[in-house]
Specification:
Oligomer: single chain
Largest sheet: 5 strands, mixed
Helix content: 25-40%
Length: 487
């Protein structure tokens, strides 16, 4: 019998392929490729514990596997070693409230026509550049029922992107289109006004939810805001019907509302999330609302109640009459053109009068007080920037959000936990903490944000899913686009 012999070159090729995907042995120990030990940094884990000085942590593939002190962890055979002495590491940020996809950042304009896969990825890259690892889009452009037998035919870009892991981009999740009284949902640019399901009857409200849940959103977004008495808005019977129907499908509800009266009714009805502080417009949280929050938690009645204060622009307004240092931050200018920075914030802030600045200060302090009282009652503060609108800077606002949280009364450590671990829990992403089996999403900083929260902007490197984000290439791309526009 003749034996078949494999040609030598095929045998060698097979060996190389196996070696690329299989652990090998060095000195009698198994060695696994794609393993890196990072050493020497001050490590903020994101769980609120004291930082680990002179830390060490190991990343294998896309996950953290071990966390400890330098010299206290065994070096995996064949592991690459990265010295981060003098640096501070913190988890990548999570954003639960963004309106991405509609804005052409370079042109400074918004349109439904811009809502493409390519443009949404560009926004996710801007988030990644700034150290944001995951986000939830709100009011996204997705095909929905028109509630009269037809469809909007807006496509499914957000639904497809949430299934993907895109290099150098934040993970994307969606809260769908939202529900509002016709015309009283998102304001500002007309491109977003008609995106939510328009409901004005209880029947429409229930039909909207039944269609909405087919998108499998992270939560159902509703607007309850009469825009200072200029518009109609969802009434208590309408939003109660939405909440009841959503909970039949075990889908949470997140609300944008303003008044104390509505906050109480929404809290009683079982709303889980608030996008913005629950009580605004010059009103103050009272003892009754605090009691409702405490009673829900005590009854274990949807006790995980959260808010994204999004007091960024309110905090920025308090710095009018002068030029805040962040206007000249290189990190901001990496992604936004100087003329846009000056148009939207530089010149308007400089023109603010002392009276206007004082009014802004009082408004910020009241909203901050409302948020902190509700936090003390048991609500959780998490991060959401409301970015995606023209003057709200994608990615950079996540760092100003941290600063506004500290100005509200949180410590830097508490603000970081809110924007990492706690936000990741709401977004249901395996991130937000530097710990074994969590996604290796982290920021390497040149300064310590626990000493000054603005140091979160001193970004040296960003890693998402264990891979270093190519920030040099991203910056070059955006600055080239800005140069072409300038010509």
């Amino acid at each position: 019998m003749h034996r078949l012999r494999m040609p030598f070159y095929l045998l060698a090729l097979a060996f190389l392929l196996l070696a690329a995907v299989w652990p090998w042995r060095l000195g009698g120990q198994a060695a696994t490729p794609n393993v890196t030990m990072f050493e020497g940094a001050r490590l903020i884990t994101g769980d609120g514990s004291a930082p680990i000085e002179n830390s060490a942590f190991i990343v294998a593939g896309n996950l953290f596997t071990q966390v400890g002190r330098r010299g206290g962890l065994p070096v995996p055979p064949g592991a690459r070693r990265v010295d981060l002495t003098g640096k501070t590491v913190m988890p990548a940020l999570i954003d639960l409230h963004g309106h991405f996809g509609f804005q052409n950042v370079v042109e400074g304009t918004m349109s439904k026509a811009f809502y493409t896969r390519e443009n949404l990825i560009d926004h996710l890259e801007r988030l990644a550049y700034n150290g944001v690892g995951a986000t939830v889009g709100v009011g996204d452009l997705e095909d929905r029922s028109d509630l009269h037998g037809g469809r909007t035919n807006w496509g499914d870009v957000p639904l497809q992107l949430r299934k993907e892991v895109i290099p150098d981009a934040a993970l994307f999740r969606t809260a769908g289109t939202g529900i509002a009284w016709p015309g009283s949902g998102p304001q500002g640019d007309p491109s977003r006004v008609d995106v939510p399901y328009p409901v004005s009857t209880v029947e429409e409200a229930r039909k909207a939810v039944q269609d909405y849940v087919l998108m499998k959103p992270e939560f159902i977004k509703i607007w309850v805001d009469d825009r200072g008495g200029t518009k109609k808005t969802l009434t208590p019977p309408l939003y109660r019907a939405i909440i009841e129907e959503a909970h039949k499908y075990n889908v949470p509800v997140g609300v944008h509302n303003v008044t104390l009266a509505n906050a109480k009714e929404l809290m009683r009805a079982g709303v889980e999330g608030w996008l913005h502080v629950p009580v605004r417009g010059g009103e103050a949280v009272d003892a009754e609302l605090i009691a409702i929050v405490k009673q829900r938690i005590a009854r274990d009645d949807r006790p995980n109640i959260w808010m994204t204060p999004a007091l960024i622009s309110a905090w920025m307004d308090t710095q009018g009459g002068k030029r805040p240092e962040w206007l000249d931050d290189p990190l901001l200018r990496d992604t936004y053109a100087p003329d846009q920075i000056e148009e939207h914030w530089g010149r308007p802030l400089a023109k603010r009068t002392p009276k206007e600045v004082e009014s802004a200060r009082r408004d910020f302090e009241l909203q901050a007080s409302n948020a902190m009282k509700l936090r003390a009652a048991g609500m959780r503060i998490v991060s959401g920037t409301d970015t995606g609108q023209t003057r709200f800077w994608i990615g950079y606002f996540n760092h100003l959000d941290l600063e506004s949280m500290v100005a509200m009364g949180l410590t830097p450590s508490e603000a970081i936990v809110a924007a990492t671990r706690d936000s990741a829990k709401i977004a249901k992403v395996n991130s937000g903490v530097v710990a074994p089996d969590k996604s290796a999403d982290f920021i390497v900083l040149d300064a310590n944000p626990l000493e000054k929260i603005g140091n979160s902007r001193r970004i040296n490197q960003v890693y998402l899913r264990g891979r270093k984000v190519d920030r040099t290439a991203l910056k070059a791309k955006w600055q080239s686009e800005q140069s072409r526009k300038a010509k």
